[in-house]
Specification:
Elements (H helix, E strand, L loop, with lengths): L2 H13 L2 H8 L3 H15 L4 E4 L2 E4 L1 H23 L9 E7 L1 H6 L1 H11 L3 E7 L13 E4 L8 E16 H5 L15 E3 L13 H4 L6 E2 L3 H9 L4 E5 L9 E3 L6 E11 L6 H27 L14
Parallel strand pairs: 3-4, 3-5, 7-8, 7-9
Antiparallel strand pairs: 1-2, 5-11, 6-9, 6-10, 6-11
Helix pairs in contact: 1-2, 1-3, 1-4, 2-3, 6-10
GO molecular function, one term: sequence-specific DNA binding
Keywords: DNA-binding, Transcription, Transcription regulation
Protein name: LysR family transcriptional regulator
Length: about 300
Amino acid sequence: MDWDDLRVFLAVARAESLSGAGRVLKCDAATVGRRVARLEAAMGAALFAKSPQGYALTEAGGRLLPHAEAAEAAMTGAAEALAGPDGSLTGQLRIGAPDGCANYLLPQVCAEISDAHPGLEIQIVALPRVFNLSKREADMAIAVSPPSAGRLTVQKLVDYQLHLAGHEAYLATHPTIRSRADLSPHRIVGYIPDMIFDKELDYLAETRAEMVRLASNSVSVQMQMLRAGAGLGIVHDFALPFTPGVVRVLPDDIALSRTFWLIRHADDRRSARLERLATALGRGMRREVARLEALASTGALAASPTRISGAA
């Protein structure tokens, strides 16, 4: 059995289509189809069932999957064993994260990791949804809630704070806010209710508002709405230093705490490379959240990212 054929098998199993696998493997769908057919002939069994929805694993394919994943882990381990003598890491690392984390935290943290490991290719995938690690959409994912199912390992990264906020120009031209009771005439910016992908992101009850008047599924868009003087919204403290003029409102009364979790496929715990990267990511996230929240509490602006020592 050829490892390259197993690699093609894994790509199709995860993408559930020949074209999707081809994009991952950087080859055309016809070539992927021929490789699958060759593997099926060698195995003497159909590994995929084709339907209008795509390629689904057959019973035989399901039995092959864990063995193919084990082979993949072994190949990765062999590459790690041959890494450079300076201990630097190479290869690709894809991190999936909610867009608030991806926009305001990961650029600085990943820059430091990249400095320590110049041969590493880091990709940040910012999507307002939960990542499917079983399909290898990412090597590791950051989430606001720990998953309750799946062959995954979960590690707490860092707690972070959120407050109600608005732009100084908006606050200067709208009714004064001294308590929650004063919020009713104010326009609320927040998530699109039916697109909230995690219960931890449902902040509406904290503002006592009946509905969000200006909404987006993106934290960055919400922040730009506040920056434009559109209203009030619950925002991450670590984002405030990047949004001049946006300040906390009722900080002693409306304060939330949430947690970022690092999620990985269970098999990846055997990878020394990914263990080192997970450690560096966690260390960097904790330092950067602490730095930015300190700036937010003093009203200072982050002119440029601070270098985080000890990236790995």
